[in-house]
């Protein structure tokens, strides 16, 4: 089983970090290597450019891949299954034009030129609207092109909006919302190993923002404690040898921890421990 992961750029570190937290540690991932082993002898990591990953997965060089939805939409592959939103690399592809220019709506671009690193997505966007544009494919610094007469507008990535603002460009329309996904080739999407990887990654995401609470509770206050801990499927209750108290464990939303502990103390809980959760397999 091969999993393609961005070899550099902003997606590399968070992708490796997520695999790590999911228990799929890369064991010999020295810089500039093309392949690395993971702790699972059946899972190899293949490092590739974020833009090439959809094709690598579709062609069989890898079985699953971690890359942006924008890259999957741009590639000509349609046999990829979007298995899981990995909740990082969130950005938007937008159509933008000079703030002080004449282009204020998509229609104003009829007969014009649009520069982009995403020619296929851009072509589809205008074709769906019946607007004819020339596409100037660039490989970076797209924001410059409307200021040097290469294009009238651009389709490019934005997240904080800083780059557009710095280049005096205004958003005209949304083209695509993107985040990083786990993609699989259609013919392997249901394979056991692929599903195990999906589940492991999902368990990390499920644990994010959650805390594990442990406490001691007098048995006769258990119902009150349960009322305070709605949680997932109710708390786990265990007898403590030689004691009248019971131990109660529960998963609580991080934002509710402060309030929950105060309420627990009021109904008689003691020795409350709060810990982080690495993974949560539901
Ligand atoms: N500013 C941003 N905020 C959030 N996500 C982004 C941003 N820019 C890019 N991305 C996401 O990261 C992906 C890869 O972008 P990144 O800049 O890391 O690689 P790249 O520019 O293609 O790398 P290189 O050209 O150096 O190989 C994009 O396709 C998009 O999904
Ligand atoms: O809205 P912002 O937060 O300003 O982000 C948008 C910028 O981020 C990306 O560039 P990146 O930093 O990846 O540089 P690159 O052009 O070298 O890929 C993208 O191409 C935009 O230029
Ligand atoms: Mg970039």
From TrEMBL:
Feedback inhibited by histidine. One of its GO terms (biological process) is L-histidine biosynthetic process. Its EC number is 2.4.2.17. It catalyses: 1-(5-phospho-beta-D-ribosyl)-ATP + diphosphate = 5-phospho-alpha-D-ribose 1-diphosphate + ATP. Keywords: Amino-acid biosynthesis, ATP-binding, Cytoplasm, Glycosyltransferase, Histidine biosynthesis, Magnesium, Metal-binding, Nucleotide-binding, Transferase. Its cofactor is Mg(2+). Residues 49-202 form the ATP phosphoribosyltransferase catalytic domain. It is found in: Cytoplasm. Pathway: Amino-acid biosynthesis; L-histidine biosynthesis; L-histidine from 5-phospho-alpha-D-ribose 1-diphosphate: step 1/9. Residues 207-279 form the Histidine biosynthesis HisG C-terminal domain. One of its GO terms (cellular component) is cytoplasm. GO terms for molecular function: ATP binding; ATP phosphoribosyltransferase activity; magnesium ion binding. Its main location: cytoplasm. InterPro entries: ATP-PRT_HisG_long, ATP_PRibTrfase_cat, ATP_PRibTrfase_CS, ATP_PRibTrfase_HisG, HisG_C, N-reg_PII-like_a/b, N-reg_PII/ATP_PRibTrfase_C. It is an enzyme of class 2 (transferase). It comes from the Archaea. Belongs to the ATP phosphoribosyltransferase family. Long subfamily. NCBIfam families: hisG, HisG_C-term. Catalyzes the condensation of ATP and 5-phosphoribose 1-diphosphate to form N'-(5'-phosphoribosyl)-ATP (PR-ATP). Has a crucial role in the pathway because the rate of histidine biosynthesis seems to be controlled primarily by regulation of HisG enzymatic activity. This is ATP phosphoribosyltransferase. It comes from Halosimplex carlsbadense 2-9-1. The lineage of its organism: Archaea, Methanobacteriati, Methanobacteriota, Stenosarchaea group, Halobacteria. The gene is hisG.
């Amino acid at each position: 089983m091969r999993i393609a992961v961005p070899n550099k750029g902003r997606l590399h570190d968070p992708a490796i970090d997520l695999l790590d937290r999911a228990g799929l540690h890369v064991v010999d991932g020295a810089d500039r290597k093309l392949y690395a082993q993971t702790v699972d002898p059946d899972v190899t990591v293949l490092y590739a450019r974020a833009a090439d990953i959809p094709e690598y997965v579709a062609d069989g060089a890898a079985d699953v891949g971690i890359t942006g939805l924008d890259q999957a939409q741009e590639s000509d592959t349609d046999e990829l299954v979007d298995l899981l939103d990995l909740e990082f690399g969130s950005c938007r592809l937008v159509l933008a034009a000079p703030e002080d220019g004449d282009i204020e709506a998509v229609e104003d671009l009829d007969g014009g030129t649009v520069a982009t690193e995403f020619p296929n997505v851009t072509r589809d966007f205008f074709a769906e609207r019946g607007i004819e544009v020339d596409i100037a494919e660039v490989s970076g610094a797209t924001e410059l092109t409307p200021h040097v007469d290469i294009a009238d507008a651009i389709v490019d990535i934005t997240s904080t909006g800083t780059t557009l603002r710095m280049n005096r460009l205004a958003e005209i329309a949304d083209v695509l919302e993107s985040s990083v996904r786990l993609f699989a080739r259609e013919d392997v999407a249901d394979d056991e190993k692929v599903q195990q990887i999906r589940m492991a990654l999902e368990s990390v995401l499920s644990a994010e923002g959650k805390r594990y609470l442990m406490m001691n509770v007098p048995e006769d206050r258990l119902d009150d404690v349960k009322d305070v801990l709605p949680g997932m499927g109710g708390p786990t209750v265990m007898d403590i040898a030689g004691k009248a108290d019971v131990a109660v464990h529960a998963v609580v939303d991080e934002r509710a921890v402060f309030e929950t502990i105060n309420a627990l103390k009021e109904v008689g809980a003691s020795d409350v421990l709060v810990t982080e959760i690495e993974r949560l397999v539901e």
